Amino acid sequence: MQLQSLAYHRQTGWTGPLPDALDSPDTLVLAFGAPAFEREPAALRQLAAAFPQSLLLGCSTSGEIAGDQLVDDSLSVAVVRFEHTQLRLVHAAVEPGADAFDAGAGLAARLAGRGLRAVFVLSDGLAVNGSRLAAGLSRHLGPQVVVTGALAGDGSAFTRTWVLDRGEPGERRICALGLYGERLRVGHGCDGGWHDFGPERRITRAAGNVLYELDGKPALDLYMSYLGERAAGLPGSALLFPLAVRPQPGGHALVRTILGIDKASRAMTFAGDLPEGGIARLMRASAEQLIDSAARAAREAAQALQDCDAALAISVSCVGRRLLLGGRAEEEVETVAECLPGSTVHVGMYSYGEIAPPVRGGHSQLHNQTMTVTVLGEA
Q: How far apart are CA 336 and CA 299, in angstroms?
């Protein structure tokens, strides 16, 4: 397994020559980039030209992770040539109103095959219900296949995201990478660090990922009353106060964050599903709690690398965590890097949603406001 990382900054260009000697059918070129690269795709086209045999996977972000640094307005790139692992890349377009479960199931059917160990998926961050996408992939692949990934970001603007499709950035796209082989080692970690506060509210009206009513009252009105002066900054300010959603009282909570609001219907659209009859409660966290949770996710993932000489680590954290951390956001990135073996190449992104198996195990799910770490190595 041969790895190299590099970056492209819109003001200064590439940090070094493109390692095109690593080009092969078993090479992954992973690129996380600023939203502006959809309008200015020259650097992405340079990657595609330098690695014509390789599989190019990438999406827009709310901040790029490169080693122990958090960067904006850049491309963070990892080039990985596997020796004992085969790769397959599949794409899907997302039609308006389509069920993301079907898209996930279709991608899973095209990837399913002997030796499939892991799938890494990148999806449009605004047009796709991440819960349904994760369910469609996981339920058709089974728990023996580790499914991780991210919903693309657009800073804190929530306007438009892109995913690479055959080397070109475009919206309403999903791209999934399958990794096959007995010598592949896959690790994953997932931790949030958030805690509930305030009263529990019953979800009395919801449709998929759109929340209309809590305790029989307009959801947006209740949420705005909690935010107070911060309500003027919606939907961005909602990232500071996500919801803990439990299908039933006392059950395991998933973190859900807002993607958009509808003032006419007084509804809120989330990155994942909200079950009618379930329980919702506001959440909050301190900077220390978020940074500590990132360390736990990294340590959990790194356990899979004990017999690997080199590895790729992909961190996906939520834009809401970055907004809460403010100037300390790079500490989260540094903490993950410190918990990984020294031979690890570390790249990643801040996202609109994180896909990974839950801490307790089982099928992969969509998470919000969570740090997820995926590691890939070969024995």
A: 8
CA–CA separation, 66 and 30 (whole Å): 12
Per-residue pLDDT, 236: 76
How many other CB atoms are found less than 10 A from the CB of residue 68?
A: 15
Q: What tokens were used for 61?
A: 């972000």
CA angle 171, 353, 193 (to 5 degrees): 160
pLDDT confidence tier of residue 226, bands split at 50, 70 and 90: confident
pLDDT exceeds 80 at position 360: no
Query: Three-class SS string for 119-138?
Result: EEEEECCCCCCHHHHHHHHH
> 65 near 5, Cβ under 8 Å?
no
Distance CA 343, CA 362 (A): 30
Mean pLDDT, range 35-61, rounded to an integer:
97
Q: Which H or E element spans position 287?
A: helix 287-302
Confidence at 93, pLDDT banded by 50, 70, 90: very high
Q: Which of 353, 356, 221, 210 is nearest to 270 (CA)?
A: 210
Domain boundaries, the chain: 2-191+288-378, 195-284
Half-sphere exposure of 240 (CA within 13 A, CB side): 16
Please tell me the number of Cα atoms within 13 Å of 346 on its side-chain side.
25
Termini Cα distance of the chain: 9
DSSP labels, 8-34: EETTTEESS---GGG-STTEEEEEEE-
Closest listed residue to residue 245, CA positions, set 229, 268, 221: 268
